[in-house]
Design brief:
The protein is built from 7 helices and 4 strands; from the N terminus they run ααβαβααβαβα. It has 161 residues and is of the alpha/beta class. The protein has a single domain, classed as 3-Layer(aba) Sandwich (Rossmann fold), CATH 3.40.50. The protein has a 4-stranded parallel β-sheet with strand order 2-1-3-4, sandwiched between helices. The protein starts with a helix and ends in a 6-residue tail after the last helix.
Length: 161
Amino acid sequence: MKPLDLILHECETLAFDLDFSWAKAWKAKNDKRIIVGYLPIYVPREIIHAANGLPVGIMGAGDRKQIIKGDAYYQSYICHLPRGIVEMALDKNLEDFDGFLFPAICDCVRNLSGMFSYRARASFSAILIIPKISSLLLAAPFTSRKWRRCWTTCTGSTVFT
């Protein structure tokens, strides 16, 4: 069993690696694997795993990268997360990602999907909308359609079992 200090060091190394070296090495082992980036909110990671993918949380650049190019896409008073992600994309930190799922948490984050599609940063990018109603009769069909769309986006296949 590894000592706690070693485990914490490994976690910190993974969490603060803006090049996502571990994920890129994982993908390089099999050409059928995909890397799907998502922002820190609920994403159906099980669907990404089923598509032979690795869901990778992108927490932004934090204080590890100066935001310069990202400010050309968003005003500097906008929160750090979308500006940092644009900066990382323009600096090619996200180069080997096959796709991105962006939550509908605000206008700036929703716009990332369009920006990534326009700039061809990956083979797909999509906005992921989670229902905010508690009625199972309404939420279940809506969620099912969204998850099927997520599957089709990740795999290119309409077969969802």
